Amino acid sequence: MFPEYSELISQLKGKDYDFTRLYEKHQELDQKIQNLALHLKPGGEREIDALKKEKLQLKDQLLQILQKAKLN
Fold first, then answer.
1. pLDDT at 38
2. Which of 69, 54, 58 is nearest to 4 (CA)?
3. Quick check: 54 and 33 in contact, CB under 8 A?
4. How far apart are the first and last CA of the chain?
5. If both were cysteines, with which of 11, 12, 41, 49 could 16 make a disulfide (CB 3.0 to 4.6 Å apart)?
6. How far is CA 38 from CA 1, 25, 28, 45, 48, in A?
7. Is the dihedral of CA 24, 30, 32, 34 positive or negative?
8. Distances (CA, A) of 29 to 24, 25, 36
9. What is the pLDDT of residue 43?
10. pLDDT for the residue numbered 45
11. For residue 41, which phi and psi values (nearest 5 degrees)?
12. pLDDT per residue as tens digits for the range 17-67
C-alpha cells in the first residue's frame, strides 16, 4: 500500500498513534478479507464487500494523513 510513501509510513508508524491505529486496522481487514475469500460460505460475499468498503475508507484516511505529513 502506497509504495511511494514507504519511508514516511515507517516514520509515522513509530510516532503517530492515530496513523498506527488506522494502518493496523487496515492490515487486519486485509487479512480478514483474504481469509474469507479463501473459505467462501453463504453470505460471505456480502461480508467481504462490507469489509472492502471499510478498508477503502481507512485507506483514504491514511492517504490524507500521508499527504498532510509530506507537506510538513
1. 83
2. 69
3. no
4. 21
5. 12
6. 21, 20, 16, 11, 11
7. negative
8. 9, 6, 10
9. 63
10. 85
11. -135, 170
12. 999 999 999 999 999 898 888 886 666 788 999 999 999 999 999 999 999
